[in-house]
User: What shape does this take?
Amino acid sequence: MSNLWSYFKQRGETLPSIEERRQRYGLGGEYSGTAAQNVALLSRLGGGTPAGQPAQPAGQQAQQPAGQPTGQPAGQPAGAVPTDWRGQMAQMEQYRTGLTEQQGIPELRASIGGLRKEIGRTETLLESLRPDIDARTQDFLVPEAYRRRMEAVERQPLTQELAGLTRGLGVQEEALSGRMSDVDYRSQLASQLMREQVGRETKAPKKASRTDLRDKESSEIARFFAVQGTREEAEEAAKAMIGQGYSPDVVYDELERQFPNPKANNQHEFD
Assistant: This one.
C-alpha cells in the first residue's frame, strides 16, 4: 500500500487517530499527522507489521537482507525523513500513487479509455453506413429516395449514441482533470513540508558570537552585583567571579558602573 488509509483498509482496520498512532508506533508528541510524517510512517509500516503489534520504536532500523531495497537510507533512524534526494523522490512517488488510488483515478482513466473506443466504433459505423446500404441493395431495384430513407432511419440511433458517448466522455475528462489537480496540489504541499522538515533537521545551530557571549556574561555579572550592598561587598564578589572564570574586564566595568571607585587613580583596591 502507498498511503495510510489504503494500508489499514487492506488489513481490515480503520485509520487510527493521530493520538492512537503516537501511542502504537512510539512517535512522540511532535507527530501531528502531516503529509511528510505520514509518508515516513508508511515507510516504517511497509514491512507489514501484524495488526495489534507495535512497529519498531523510532530510532531502530530493521535489518534488510542483502540486495533488498529499503525505504530508508543506511544509518538513518526509522521514520525519519531521508535527507538524500533519492529517498525523498521514492517517498513522494509512493505518496502520489496513494493519492491517485484514493481518488479513483486509475478506474476513471480506464472508463475514459472505454468511452473513446466506443466513440471510435460508432464513428466508423456512421462513416460506413451509406456504402453498407448500397452493398445490401445493389441486387435490387431500389430507388435512391428509398436508400436515403433507409440511411436516415439507421443513422439516427447511431447519431444519438455518439452524442451520449461524447457527453459522457466530456464529464469524465472534466472529473479526471479536477482530481489530478487535487493530487498535484497535495503532492506539492507534501513535498514542501518534507523539504522544510529536512531543512530543520539538517540546519546547523547558530554559533554564538563573541559579542553574544560577552553580553550574556555581562548580564549575569550585573545581576550578581545588584544584590551587593556596599562597594566592599561588591569587590569581594568580583574576586569570587573572577575566580570562577568570568572575564576580569567585564567584572571591573560592571563593578565601576554600579559602585563607582572613589579613588582618583581609578585603581582597583584589590589589584
Q: What stands out?
A: Confidence is low (pLDDT under 50) at residues 47-83, 264-270. Residues 1-49 form one domain. DSSP finds ten helices and no strands in the chain. The first helix runs from residue 4 to 10.
